[in-house]
Amino acid sequence: MFPVTLKGDRINLREFEAADSEARWSYVSDPLVSRYQSWTPLADLEACKDMLLSDIAEAKSEDRRVYLLAVELEGQVVGEAGIILGSPRSASGSIFFTVSRQLWRHGYATEAAQMVLQFTFRTLGLHRVEATVHPDNAASRAVVTRKLGMQYEGRMRKAMRLFNDEWSDSDLFSLLQREWQHPPS
Ligand SMILES: CC(C)(COP(=O)(O)OP(=O)(O)OC[C@H]1O[C@@H](n2cnc3c(N)ncnc32)[C@H](O)[C@@H]1OP(=O)(O)O)[C@@H](O)C(=O)NCCC(=O)NCCS
How far is it, in rounded angstroms, from Cα 158 to Cα 28? Predict the structure, then answer.
């Protein structure tokens, strides 16, 4: 499905465009934003541009597996959120979200993640959503457990490769479509 635009109370989620690379670079290059992520390290803005162009091409492909959406606040890209789909038969996916450090603790990740869940369960009709979280990432754990109602399933050993190429354990959480507490439509 392309393009996807989701309207929220304070933020919108929309497809990335090539012109968003500087805004994206401003948060992906922040060491505090990336420290618990398994992202491929990007050397500079040029590398970020190339990655974004490849992400946009994937989004437009017929067999789209990654819904990477820009979090837009008052016309500015301030983060990203989305879902990576598993095999079609599994009807499952893995959710992700990131917000610029200047805007942490204002509820934006919660709002973005809830919008992604609504899109995932209602529009894509998935059966199960997972989240993987670095064991020290208290902020992300708070979002998935307290805000999204996901259940802890266990710790995967050395399942996440960090920026510095170290292997880290990763905590797995999940939510089934039937457990999802969605707002009335
Ligand atoms: C994780 C992240 C997206 C949270 O974003 P955010 O917009 O600050 O989250 P919210 O404001 O929606 O906060 C949700 C809850 O988490 C809590 N929280 C936020 N940061 C926290 C922290 N460092 N420690 C403990 N709880 C925290 C908030 O207090 C809030 O709960 P409350 O409403 O009961 O107070 C943000 O910290 C981030 O971008 N981190 C870097 C990228 C990342 O790790 N992404 C997740 C990968 S799995």
Answer: 23
Q: How far is the CA of 139 from the centre of ligand 1 (A)?
A: 3
Task: Report the C-alpha dihedral over residues 20, 22, 26, 31, rounded to 10 degrees.
Answer: 100
Ligand 1, residues 80, 110, 114, 171: which to mutate, most atoms within 8 A of Cβ? Answer: 110
* Cα 27 to Cα 137: distance, rounded to the nearest angstrom: 17
pLDDT digits (tens, 9 = 90+) for 123-178: 999 999 999 999 999 999 999 999 999 999 999 999 999 988 899 999 999 999 99
Give the CATH number of domain 5-179.
3.40.630.30
Give the whole-angstrom CA distance, residue 38 versus residue 165.
Answer: 9
Widest CA span in the chain: 44
Structure tokens at 88: 């079609």
**pTM of structure:** 0.94
Residue of 87, 145, 136, 80 whose CA lies nearest to 109 = 80
